[in-house]
Amino acid sequence: MTEPSPDTTNAVSPAEAQERLTAILGLDSEPVGVFLLAQDAAGTPPFSEWRQLSKHRYCQALMRARRGAAVVLEPDELSCPAAAAAFGLRALPEGLVNGKGLVGFGIVQKPATGARMFQDMPHLEPGTVDAIALAPLRLAPRTPDVVVVEGTPEQLMWMVLADLNRDQGARRRAHTAVLQATCVDSTIVPFLEGGLNFSLGCYGCREATDLAPSETVIGFPGELLDPLMERLIALAEKAVPRSRAKGVHAALIAAEAEADHAEGSPFEEGELQ
């Protein structure tokens, strides 16, 4: 959890990391640094100078940051009860505890299913976090607690592959309930488990933010920024441009065209005139 003291351990600054991430992946929005602030840290620079949000969901605060804003979300201003419970800021309402709330949203058919989803929800203990600060990675004053990136599956695939390289080939598994994709899947799970996690999004963040149907989200601990960037830069030397050039697909199309030409046109000359 972030304490208000400088960090000089990263070989690559957050601003440099954002520049490279954006260039290599081709991101249309900014990667976000998330700071889980201890008591009273929100009142210290630079967080005291960031915009104080009013009645925002966590996914909406993340949206503000990915679009360039540096923001702080205090407990009373976190409007999503599920996210507030996940961050240990408030108790989960009874309608979510018993699962009936998710039935009402049409997310599940049985209350027991919804109840199980919240029973298994990774969460922070009460008192762990006093406020949440979010900003584009380039504005991060130190290594963030978590880095969250929203983009297309193809773009984020390279980050997962970089993580696989970092972990010497160990297969990656997503930790998700297709619920709380930004707060739990992409922030709390990486923070608690110390590793990258990816998600397909969820009902809430897709309804409440500008996350496009073609986009999804990943998160990883800020301490992994350097090793992930090292592997991503290596992937960008050959694998990324080669895959995006689609040479094998182009060869298939060319071979099909050549085969069609060799067999002759099914139409007589002048028939289409």
Element order: H for helix, E for strand: HEEHEHHHHEEHHEHEHHH
**Sheet having the most strands:** 7 strands, mixed
Number of strands: 7
Instruction: Please tally the helical runs, counting DSSP H or I stretches of 4 or more residues.
Output: 12
Indicate the structural class: alpha+beta
Low-confidence stretches: 4-10
Strand order of the largest sheet: 2-3-4-1-5-7-6
- What is the straight-line distance between the termini? 73 Å
Shape: globular
Mean pLDDT: 93
Q: Helicity range of the residues?
A: 40-55%
List the helices and strands and how they pair.
Elements: H1 14-25, E1 32-37, E2 51-52, H2 58-66, E3 71-73, H3 81-86, H4 94-97, H5 100-105, H6 111-119, E4 131-136, E5 146-151, H7 153-166, H8 181-193, E6 197-199, H9 203-208, E7 216-221, H10 225-237, H11 239-245, H12 247-263
Parallel strand pairs: 2-3
Antiparallel strand pairs: 1-4, 1-5, 3-4, 5-7, 6-7
Structure at a glance:
The chain has 273 residues and is α+β, with helices and mostly antiparallel strands. The chain contains 12 helices and 7 strands. It is globular.
Q: What does the model show?
A:
- By secondary structure, this protein is of the alpha+beta class.
- It has one domain (14-259).
- Helices cover 42% and strands 12% of the residues.
- It has twelve helices and seven strands.
- A seven-stranded mixed beta sheet has the order 2-3-4-1-5-7-6.
- The longest helix is centred in the last third of the chain and has 17 residues, at 247-263.
- The radius of gyration is 22 Å and the shape is globular.
- Residues 4-10 have low confidence and may be disordered.
